Input
Amino acid sequence: MEINNLREKTKILINQLTLFLKNNYLPIALIFIFVLQNHFFNAWLDIPVRPFFIRRTVVSFSLGALLFCPAILLKKWIKYLYLILVSLLTSIVFIIQFLYYSFSGGFLQSSALFYASEGTTVLDTAKTLLTYHLIFFIFGLFVILLAWILDYKKITSEKILNKKEKIFVGIATLLITFSGYGYIFLREYIEAGNVVHIYQYNKLYNVNALVGKIGVINFSIGDGLTLGLHTDKATAADIDFLKEYKLNQTTSTPNSNFGILKNRNLILVQIESLENAVIGQKINEQEITPNLNRLANDGLYFSNYYAPIGPGTTADAEFMTLNSLYSLPDTVAFIEYAYNKYSALPALLKENGYHTYAFHGDVPSFWNRANMYPQLGYEKWFGRADYTIPRNIGVYDLGDKDFFEQSIPKLKSLPQPFMATLITLTSHSPFKMPDDLKTINFPTTTTLNELQQDYIQSIRYTDQAVGDFIAQLKTSGLYDNSLILIYGDHGSFSNISAGLKVKNSIFSDLQNSQVPMIILAPKTKLKGKENAPSSHMDVYPTVTNLFGIQPPTNIFGHDMLGNTHLAISRNLISGTIASIITDQSAYHSASDGIFEHGTCIKMPDQKRAPTDNCRLLYEDGQKAVRASDLMVKENLVTRSQTVGTFSLKKSDGQ
Output
């Protein structure tokens, strides 16, 4: 009897489920179409499909359920209108992102809506990118239209769900949604080990990897929510502070080097993870960086130079170098503020007759360069598609030797004077090199761990690539007519300074952010070693002074060849001053953030001084980073060019 009852109930349940699916096949079909659209979007744009396939399927299905299942609760004609609206919106996002990526190599962000009028300039180009693939992104609309035609006579007589059925559908939709997103968060937590940094650190701002994981619609919705929830708007007090800050700054004046390199080409070589600790060091009587050592002797070597980056690592190094603005402690300007108006170095040089180019062996979407570079004033950038990869070397495949060798003919073809930024890749963690390219022989008794040994091998390879590049610049005739800056973007995160027993910085926690800066100005007297503190902030004013160009008043750095020298590092998230170093004083904050608990040092003898001696230095530093953050976060950079320059005042503590 019980078995018969169970069979009867099962039969009833199956019949009800069959009837439910029959009556609601359209939203369910649209969910599966939506999942396929996400997969094909990635496949057609050559975004790796196989990694994260399950993750992308699950989260796309969850979003599809959230978008299309509410139609089940609606009655008659309203259901079809709702489905048309949702399908139309998702189709528009798919198509716009597809065309934008095909054009720029990056994904369109919501903040670009503020500059939509500028998009009309690329409409003609967009027409050339139209492809039959786009038809699939409107396929859902065709399905809805067909269902509407087939069901036209049934629509008015269609059964409306009762209250219990609506509750069931609502709960089921939410369960599917939360389960799907819960799954991806759980997977990310297992891999990253930290729910705060839910995406792996080295892929946090790799937009391709993010779209690969969650699909382009999820990415676009998340980006829109981030923009909509942006709450730290500038208040009247903030604006008053910014105005007062500017009025209190002294105007920078040109020094004796003003214009001595007028109309020379500018070549910036930003080397991945190059720390100052390896310069001049030997392993088993083998120089780690023989070429960089020679170049340091040939040019002007800054041995007390810092990379005070935030969470954006390489992108922060670029941001600071090209804008002379402080990196943000809690987010990345290249991502969150890519569409701001900047007074960047490439744009300024372009106004003064230069042609501006960027060279990088990665995809344009990484660190959102495809969207950021035009805002900085680059005319063109050469990315991964512009290089061939003879063999895979390092985590990004394109070896630095191949990168430099293939960049030389590109540089030779550029109209002069030009600015060219070249960013290397091979010495990126985890520093794994093919055995035949490992040229350092370590003693069996070495105390260096495996990561540090791998780092040294990769840096030695990059050093050889840089040496070859400089030799090729000389052969090509570009060397003598160029100003060349070679510097590390940030530390290696390998604690190599401790491994090599090198201590150059006054504060131990600054040691790993100390990178080399080498300035090569052939046929000039700019040679020697300089120990004055400086950082990425100072490249902009140094270059403009040498080129005889007056910089804008909204930069915060100082000419490294001038009389004012300064380096500031910040605490991540809070953005407060961690340390500040000048020629006369240095201050280091305590872990509790209380000023009086910090350490004040008199320079250059490095003797302890009363903490209060550094108070003005600290307060001026806090004002500087606050002013810089306001300018970036509120898009006030180009609207703040009034009298005065954003530099620290001289104080008794300096």
The chain has two domains: 2-228, 260-552. The radius of gyration is 29 Å. Confidence is low (pLDDT under 50) at residues 115-122, 195-205, 642-654.
